[in-house]
Write a structure and sequence with these properties.
Blueprint lengths: L1 H9 L4 E5 L5 H10 L3 E5 L3 H8 L10 H9 L3 E4 L10 E4 L14 H13 L4 E5 L7 H11 L9 E5 L18 E5 L2 H11 L6 E4 L2 H32 L3 H8 L23 H11 L5 H11 L1 H15 L8 E5 L14 H11 L3 E5 L5 E3 L11 E3 L5 H6 L2 E4 L8 H7 L2 E4 L6 H6 L3 E4 L1
Helix pairs in contact: 1-7, 5-6, 8-10, 8-11, 12-13
Bound molecules: nicotinamide-adenine-dinucleotide.
The site of nicotinamide-adenine-dinucleotide has 27 residues, from helix 5.
């Protein structure tokens, strides 16, 4: 059936379904529609489906006008009715892959979506999983579910894994110019899925199996977690030695070979770097293997919020102030600049810790109106904290300003002119700003 499928794609006659319209799924859906396919997005969240059908985007990297045009042209629609999966020739799913409280993989979203696919699986379909997961998920979990329906791989349907590498908020690299790794359960599946992605991506890199593709994604993100861990450890060491970490990294990065700079920060956040390595270490444990780099990186990275609190305490101490009763203003709570995502953001842990020590904590984030805290973490339980306006009065009233996220739109010049003490965890303040600053600045 591979040849039929490939012809359908080449002729742009294939209908494409994307399950899970979040940071990964919505850009993908729009990209396929823009390249001439008829696409349907499947969501469990009725509000998201309604927003798309009304021609609006809720994802920063997808412009509303693009969705509107495609909806009006009748090429793109969203639904919560999974019966329409039957009409799709290719079904790609991009549902969340969080961790359980025990830090074990939670593949329940994958299973729920796969059950929907299972119900409507028919001859001629290609199914592709994009959610980050442990090596073996596609072969060991999905394939048996689909074969249970009496259909045969290659003869009746095709199955592949292709990891997503989207970097929300990155204007330079978007779906079309990020090379795509594709690995099928069979050679036919690899070829069909590679042909599908080549319609929207400049460079498709095929590998020999779904497992290789699954492992490649985990290597990429584990590589980042480990190297950020190294940079974070260096930052703590440099603080103890009274050396400027950033100057050290900049100097080392002048070496034109054999060194790649990674930078310290207040801790790792988002849906990928803090979680994905656990998918690999969990699979390793199943095989009696202890992945020590992953454990060490997690240990070092998870200590960074506490280190940030130490910098605040040290800064206040020099002013003869205690953290208890001091007013601390966080700039940014999103896990990285210029996006509104607070999942696993270190800012939440920093706020928790500052409050636990009696600080009066406020925050300003142009992208995040409100953050909510779990009952378990916050005294009083489950309340929301809202972003305050970055007024002169707010800056002057803060005993310490902590730059947790280096959003581009913040007037840092203004911040350095009015705040008395700044802890900069992101090197948001460049040399000129630091030299002209009225504030005392402590850098990570
Ligand atoms: N966000 C990133 O930067 C990024 C980058 C690379 C890979 N990934 C991976 O991609 C996957 C998706 O991540 P995301 O950031 O897009 O998540 P997300 O939470 O933004 O989006 C997931 C969407 O799936 C929907 N959903 C959940 N269960 C569903 C079901 N059974 N049927 C239909 N829809 C369902 C949710 O309502 C949500 O809208 C994860 O595995 C993640 O690790 C994410």
């Amino acid at each position: 059936m591979k040849e039929e499928f490939i012809k359908l794609i080449t002729d742009k006659g294939a209908r494409i379904g994307v399950i899970g319209l979040g940071y990964v799924g919505l850009p993908l859906l729009v990209e396929f529609a823009r390249s001439g396919f008829n696409v349907t997005g499947f969501e469990v969240d009725e509000h998201k489906a309604a927003e798309i059908n009304a021609g609006r985007s809720y994802i920063g990297d997808v412009v509303g006008s693009a969705v509107r045009e495609l909806v009006h042209a009748d090429r793109l629609r969203a639904t919560t009715d999974f019966q329409y999966l039957k009409d799709c020739d290719a079904v790609i799913f991009c549902v969340p892959t969080p961790l359980r409280k025990t830090k074990e993989p939670d593949v329940s979203y994958i299973l729920a979506a796969a059950e929907q696919i299972q119900k409507s699986l028919r001859r001629g379909q290609l199914i592709v999983l994009e959610s980050t997961t442990y090596p073996g998920t596609t072969d060991e979990v999905l394939l048996p579910m689909f074969e249970e329906m009496g259909l045969k791989l290659d003869e009746d349907f095709l199955l592949a894994f292709s990891p997503e590498r989207v970097d929300p908020g990155n204007p330079q690299f978007q779906t079309h110019n990020i090379p795509k790794v594709v690995g099928g359960c069979t050679q036919d599946s690899t070829e069909a899925a590679s042909h599908l992605y080549s319609q929207i991506v400049n460079d498709v890199h095929s590998v020999s199996s779904a497992r290789v593709a699954e492992a490649a994604k985990l290597l990429e993100n584990t590589f980042r977690a480990v190297n950020i861990g190294m940079a974070n450890e260096m930052a703590r060491l440099c603080y103890a030695l009274n050396i400027d970490t950033w100057e050290v990294i900049r100097a080392a990065a002048t070496k034109p070979f054999g060194f790649m700079p990674f930078y310290p920060g207040p801790g790792i956040g988002g849906h990928c770097i803090p979680l994905d390595p656990h998918y690999l270490s969990w699979k390793a444990r199943q095989h009696g293997f202890d992945s020590r780099f992953i454990g060490l990186a997690e240990e070092v990275n998870s200590r960074m919020p506490e280190h940030v609190v130490t910098l605040v305490v040290d800064g206040l101490n020099d002013e003869r102030k205690s953290l208890k009763g001091s007013r601390v203003l966080l700039l940014g709570v999103a896990y990285k600049k210029d996006i509104n995502d607070v999942r696993e953001s270190p800012a939440l842990s920093i706020i928790d810790r500052l409050r636990a020590k009696g600080a009066d904590v406020r925050y300003h984030d142009p992208f995040v109106e409100e953050v909510r805290f779990d009952d378990a973490h916050t005294e009083g339980g489950g309340e929301a904290l809202s972003s305050v306006e970055l007024t002169d009065a707010e800056l002057k009233a803060a005993d310490c300003v902590v730059i947790v996220t280096d959003h581009s739109g913040i007037d840092y010049h203004h911040v350095t002119a009015l705040a008395p003490l700044i802890v900069d965890t992101r090197i948001a303040l460049n040399g000129d700003l630091r030299r002209a600053s009225h504030a005392r600045i402590i850098r990570l």
